[in-house]
Write a structure and sequence with these properties.
By secondary structure, the protein is of the alpha+beta class. Helices cover about 20% and strands about 25% of the residues. The chain has a single domain, classed as 4-Layer Sandwich (L-amino peptidase D-ALA esterase/amidase), CATH 3.60.70. It has 7 helices and 15 strands.
Length: about 375
């Protein structure tokens, strides 16, 4: 099986153009890599699984986002939000209750959530330092979107080893986009979707976003305000199933920041991802699992277990620039996921075309964008 891990290379070495390379205008100033890894300490790892054809075609994987890097499981303050709950993100009851995220955010396909969750716990136990008691209590955060149009989702191809590979391959730096990790088999607005990322510099702070996008229908898609979906209405997937207008996809959005925010403020930040999603045309339909999580790498003592805990936080009155940064970065991350994806043929010969770069440019010119 072709099992592709994360490789630390410049973006252009991946052979994928990003939305800005194609002339798409976005608001705001991105960080050095225009990625979630612009937030210091954040690392991203992938395991990409591509093999075979026909009914057993494998087009899936695992994505790992480490808030403080893979060598640290020190908790961070976090909050989450469900725009539409036809999906799964484990561990969120404790995120709500305790305001903390311990370990990575893991993303995969719908029917591999349990495998990835258990695999992380086993990986963590195996890495316990000699003489130390292994962690006997763990509630990992594992999220999903459905890739069954391109992937043999009931083949249960994601393994413990794949999860470990995603965890261990995590790095800072440029982040590969499109058909990688958990996003390998995803479809977004009727084009090939997958994994995308973006960031914004907000004063002295940074906000970064990583999406696994599998949402929306073709006619809904807007890019920089232009009705791109309606301009490219050929080769629409699902149409043969009689469901061209149904929203059967999902999107998981992970937001990172180094701004000092408390848990309730991070829930507010997670909510704003909804507005970035809406900019691309989604209405968050009944069949869509649109679930978002946000964390802050500030306050290194967030998980202190004893004594008084001293933390810093921005006042609510100073959060507007962060809200704006999340909206902008979410919009761009979704478009980057499509711009970086490649046409894919998967299970039962289903084929999903990549967003045509030439026609995207034409549409941008047509609408003065």
């Amino acid at each position: 099986m072709k099992r592709l891990g994360w490789v630390l290379l410049p973006v252009l070495a991946f052979g994928a153009e990003r939305a800005r390379d194609l002339g798409v205008p976005f608001d705001g100033k991105p960080g050095e890599w225009n990625a979630i890894t612009d937030v210091k300490g954040v690392e991203v790892g992938y395991r990409t699984l591509i093999e075979g054809a026909g009914p057993r075609a494998v087009r899936t994987g695992v994505t790992a986002v480490w808030p403080r890097g893979k060598e640290s499981v020190e908790p961070v303050f976090a909050g989450w939000f469900s725009l539409n709950g036809n999906g799964e993100m484990t561990g969120t009851a404790w995120v709500d209750e305790g305001g903390l995220l311990s370990g990575p955010v893991l993303i995969t396909n719908t029917h591999s959530v349990g495998t990835v969750r258990d695999a992380f716990i086993k990986w963590q136990v195996r890495r316990a330092k000699p003489g130390a008691e292994p962690d006997e209590w763990s509630l990992p955060v594992v999220a999903e979107t459905w890739d069954g149009y391109l992937n043999d989702v009931n083949g249960f191809h994601v393994t413990e080893a794949d999860t470990a590979a995603a965890l261990e391959s995590a790095r800072s730096g440029p982040v590969r986009e499109g058909n990688v990790g958990g996003g390998t088999g995803m479809v977004c607005y009727g084009f090939k979707g997958g994994t995308g990322t973006s960031s914004r510099r907000v004063g002295e702070y940074t906000v970064g976003v990583l999406v696994q996008c599998n949402c929306g229908r073709r006619a809904q898609l807007q890019i920089a305000g232009a009705p791109v979906g309606r301009e490219i209405m050929d080769a629409i997937p699902y149409a043969s199933n009689g469901q061209p207008r149904d929203d059967v996809g999902s999107i998981i959005i992970t937001v990172a920041t180094d701004a000092p925010l408390a848990a309730h403020q991070l829930k507010r930040l997670a909510r704003r991802a909804s507005l970035g999603l809406a900019r691309t045309g989604s209405v968050s339909g009944n069949g869509s699992g649109d679930i978002f999580i946000a964390f802050s790498t500030a306050n290194p003592n967030a998980g202190q277990a004893k004594g008084l805990v001293t933390v810093t936080m921005l006042p609510n009155e100073e959060m507007n620039p962060l809200f704006e940064g999340v909206v902008q970065a979410t919009e761009e991350a979704i478009v980057n996921a499509m711009a970086g994806a490649e046409t894919m043929t998967g299970v039962q010969g289903h084929r999903v075309i990549a967003l045509p770069h030439d026609r995207l440019r034409e549409t941008m010119r047509k609408y003065g964008r």
